[in-house]
Amino acid sequence: MTGTYDPFVETLGVWLVCFFTLAVFSFLYRDNPIYKAVEHIYVGVAAGYYFYQAFRGTIYPNFVLHVMRGTRAIVQGQAEGWTVHDGWLAQWRWGAAVLGILLLSRLVPRLSWLSRWPMALVVGAFAGLNLTGFAKANFIDQIAGTMLPLAAGGSAQALPFWPGATAAAPSIFNHFVLVVGVVTVLTYFFFSTPRTGMLGKMGTVGIWFVMMTFGATYGSIVLARISLLIGRATTLLDANLPKYGYPAYWCALLVLLAIVVWRLKFCKDEQQP
Length: 273
Hints:
By secondary structure, the protein is mainly α. Helix content is about 70%, strand content about 0%. The protein is built from 8 helices and no strands.
């Protein structure tokens, strides 16, 4: 194994990358068979890949390997340091396998009720095992994260607008904004009393913070999608080389011709009411 691909396999891979990328971009025109075919291929390949990863990373080491070693330990008396007692303990993993198979009973309408038992066990175990972790990460740590010093004691490097503060101005400002934002947002979602007077004003400030948070989140998502677009465009430019036969140009022409043929021969515009 030299770590390199055969030239034909490498060229074929480059052409497939260009074709699939441009076929997905064809959705910008409208939904078409080229895009649907590529979408189905992608979903199928992804499902097969993740099933393989689940088998190699979960099913094989946690079930198949343990059952095989346990069987050898029971029959032969030893298996890689295992005792007969360890072998019998390994056979309890058949119970997990049966519960996993019962999840597939949802595919049979008359037996779908059997899937409730393993589903209830999975949900209950997940909730119990992760209760403390989620409570600490999403509740306790969030509360501790808002307990910030708005100023540090001392006289050195004192700030003119905050007497006795030694912290840097950006830190004080950031802490102040965070504390005010948390308090006002919680006030906005406090529905036990009418939002009038001071509570109403704090609630208004809170909704401003909520809107700014939503806007920043949306902006970050848009930037992430733009970065993906730039990445695919860079891939097309890097792959469009003479040694590969300019696949981006030919694949773009192929996708365009396929859409034109589909549009003229098979696509019928919806009749206007």
